[in-house]
Design a protein that fits this description.
The chain is about 5% helix and about 55% strand. With about 375 residues, it is mainly beta. It has one domain: Beta Barrel (Porin). The strands form two sheets. A 16-stranded antiparallel beta barrel has the order 1-2-3-4-5-6-7-10-11-12-13-14-15-16-17-18. A two-stranded antiparallel sheet has the order 8-9. The longest helix is centred in the N-terminal third of the chain and has 15 residues.
Length: about 375
């Protein structure tokens, strides 16, 4: 599938910044100052990782990683603000910084940097480790700096709208457009609002979800994205002849609970056009995961996940991401020993991407303490 890439001019970038400034000014109007409300959440975690088999290039054999995720939300009339900053022993980044306007009871418009909605796990959990049952994220859902195969952040405008049905079901829509990542080294690098740089092009995302009961967590849906990804050719020997990557994705997801059981699954089809010097290579594949959970009691949850793909073994795009988790078979146990604190253990048989079907296989063991305050 060949898609023509729209170019984002300097004028468009200035327009995006102007929209943010115009919207932020609404916070200081007399109407907006009435009935303000704010919330501050602190997500903390301490994760231990051990490679219990052989060393793999690009992976530490072990680490102990403390992480603090600070989430601040502010409501004032129709005005909204949300900021999220994450710090760990391996990174420090402003993850989300967005200003919103409630256009109607069921419609929100956001400007700024936000998480893409074409990845279900990211939409559901963001960076809140305590919120997700497992320690690890599926390879499909990984962040850009963890060899994720598609953007996790874009900077621009996002529109959310929900339609309530007479039978109490709900249909929600999201559309987002803005600056996407560049490919540098061995990862996608998103636009950084604290350290803006040039070279970023357009990214589009859409997400449609159906909930048979508006008050229930059960939902199914579809997602799609299109990303124009410039390549920093001099940043890695593997990129020397590549100029840009045009990526289109379409996916489906389901998140369903009944009694003590939960099933979470998502599958995404990728269509990539890699523009080399003088030629274009097409690459397509499908990757996904199935995660099952059983709540044995109020405090104990047993869970497992399988991550597989179709047609990904010889993908010229995934070869550029040598640390991408191509396959994983994982089992885990979570203990919620306090109201907002948990201990979790995972063991997995994992394979990273490599040339052809010869993946780099290793065994991993993870332990994590996670919590949210207040």
């Amino acid at each position: 599938m060949k898609i023509v890439s729209p170019k984002l001019t300097a004028r468009c970038q200035l327009l995006l910044c102007a929209c943010v400034l115009i919207l932020s000014s609404a916070a200081w109007t007399p109407v907006a100052r009435a009935q303000s409300q704010d919330d501050l959440l602190l997500f903390l975690s301490l994760e231990s990782f051990d490679n219990t088999s052989r060393s793999i290039p690009g992976f530490d054999n072990s680490y102990l990683r403390p992480t603090a995720d600070i989430l601040y939300a502010y409501n004032n009339g129709s005005f909204r603000f949300l900021g999220e900053y994450i710090w760990s022993s391996s990174e420090s980044e402003m993850e989300r910084f967005k200003l919103g306007w409630q256009a109607s009871e069921k419609t929100m418009i956001w400007f700024g940097r936000f998480h893409t909605t074409a990845k279900y796990w990211t939409t559901e959990y963001h960076h809140g480790q305590f919120m997700q049952t497992s320690i690890s994220r599926p390879g499909l859902e990984e962040w850009e700096d963890e060899s994720g195969p598609m953007p996790s952040h874009i900077t621009g405008v996002s529109i959310d709208h929900e339609i309530m049905q007479a039978n109490q079901s709900a249909l929600s829509f999201n559309f987002a457009a803005g600056l996407g990542p560049v490919f540098e080294g061995q990862e996608l690098v998103p636009f950084d609002v604290l350290d803006p740089g040039g070279g970023h092009e357009l990214s589009f995302n859409t997400h449609v979800a159906f909930r048979p009961d508006a008050l229930s967590e059960n939902q199914v849906g579809v997602m799609a994205s299109w990303n124009d990804i410039p390549v920093i050719s001099g940043s890695s020997p593997s990129l020397v002849d590549i100029r840009r990557i045009e990526q289109a994705t379409i996916g489906v997801f389901a998140d369903w609970r009944w009694d003590r059981w939960r099933l979470l699954t998502s599958w995404t089809y990728f269509d990539n056009d890699l523009t080399y010097t003088g030629s274009v290579a097409n690459d397509d594949f499908t990757i996904g995961y199935i995660q099952g959970e059983y709540r044995q009691s109020r405090d104990w949850t047993i869970f497992g996940r399988t991550e597989i793909g179709f047609g990904e073994d010889n993908s010229p795009f995934l070869i550029l991401l040598p640390a991408f988790i191509a396959h994983r078979h994982m089992l885990g146990l979570r203990w919620d020993y306090a109201d907002k604190q948990s201990l979790t253990m995972e063991f997995a048989d994992t394979s990273t991407q490599a040339q052809g079907s010869d993946h780099n296989n290793f065994k991993e063991l993870r332990f994590q303490w996670s919590a949210v305050f207040p």
